[in-house]
Specification:
The chain is an alpha+beta fold. Helices cover 44% and strands 24% of the residues. It has helices spanning 7-60, 63-106, 189-192, and strands spanning 119-123, 129-135, 140-147, 160-170, 174-179, 203-205, 210-214, 219-222, 225-231. A nine-stranded antiparallel beta sheet has the order 6-7-5-4-3-2-1-9-8.
């Protein structure tokens, strides 16, 4: 079986997201540098002027000079506050956009399993039954089980045969088998997929019609019989 998730598209999408985040970060840094450079230029311009006016104010002790000094100092302080405000807004915007990019990356769901070939689970040599589970690329499956008869003295040996089908879905790790409803209750998934015979987490019965199997494994125990996976 060959699963064909669109790995190349995912890589291109991740590369685009990383490029967008890098470009946003660089633009924010350039904007912050420009703001701080402007702040430094303003301080260099106003600080000598303010100090000079302080000296004049102390010498002349003129109310006009003192008022002019307060007016002059308000301008750089106001500009500094504006620059700090826009700087904080830029950092906040960068964090928000980075958070949105990370959220978009996290909600990507696993790719659905797509089969190019038929996958068959077939029982090996045993004295109990012949079992065949066939996963078809169109999303359906067939289940066949023939229980070998026990030798009897006064009657012809008879074999029990179970035929069933349904639909499957999943990803590269697990597959859900949804068995079709049957008129006669002759199929018990808890008997077929008996937890006493499973190895690890190779299957789990969800309800009376659905079972989840570990698709990454090379075999599956059905009715206590090892069924090996192959492609046809």
């Amino acid at each position: 079986m060959r699963a064909t998730p669109n790995c190349q598209d995912r890589r291109i999408r991740d590369l685009s997201e990383n490029s967008a985040a890098t470009a946003l970060k660089n633009a924010t840094h350039q904007r912050l540098n420009a703001i701080w450079n402007g702040l430094l230029r303003i301080l260099r311009f106003y600080v000598p002027s303010v100090q000079h006016q302080k000296i004049q104010g102390r010498t002349a002790r003129s109310p006009f000079v003192s008022t002019n000094l307060r007016t002059t100092m308000r301008k750089p302080i106001f500009l500094v506050l504006i620059l700090i405000f826009f700087s904080c807004q830029s950092k906040k915007s960068e964090k928000t956009q980075n958070s949105e990019l990370n959220t978009e990356t996290e909600i990507i769901k696993p790719e659905s399993l797509v089969l190019n070939d038929t996958v068959v689970y077939l029982s090996g040599d045993n004295d109990l039954a012949l079992i065949k589970l066939t996963l078809i690329p169109n999303g359906t499956f067939d289940f066949y089980m023939s229980i070998y008869p026990e030798p009897m003295r006064d009657a012809e040996p008879e074999s029990d045969i179970i035929n069933s089908n349904g639909t499957w879905s999943g990803n590269g790790k697990t597959v859900l088998l949804n068995f079709a409803e049957r008129k006669k209750d002759t199929l018990n998934l808890n008997d077929l997929f008996n937890s006493n015979y499973k190895e690890g987490n190779e299957f789990k019965v969800i309800n009376q019609n659905t079972v989840e199997i570990d698709y990454s494994l090379g075999k599956l125990n059905i009715w206590g019989i090892s069924c090996h996976k192959s492609e046809k």
